[in-house]
Design brief:
Layout (H helix, E strand, L loop, with lengths): L7 H11 L5 H18 L5 H18 L6 H24 L5 H20 L7
Helix pairs in contact: 1-3, 2-3, 4-5
Amino acid sequence: MTTPINLEPIFWKRQFKAHNEDIIPIEQAGFDAVMDQLNKLESNANRSEINNIRRFYRDRHRRIKVDAVDGDIIYQLFLDAFHAEYTFVQNALSQGQIPSDLAERLQQRITFDELTYLQNRESFQV
């Protein structure tokens, strides 16, 4: 959750713009094709999974149309993501799904990622 994947569409938009090209028509064609295919594949048995995929593509499609990103929103998203990761590890440990040594290593990794983000916050600003 804490990788800069949310910024990837903006990166590509900037790359296309730097070459005087427009990514929006390509993005729209891909988005439409994915949505059509997901509609064909959807069934009662896989509706939840299909909706998760739809949500990912809709978010990506929305982000690529954004011209600017609010740094405060990115900051809050990262903090929310770190909190969600800590909670996930704690719940898995509490439910006996992972041993305590793994939980400790995961929490150390989350802490390292959080510190890295905070020290390099400017690089996540667009």
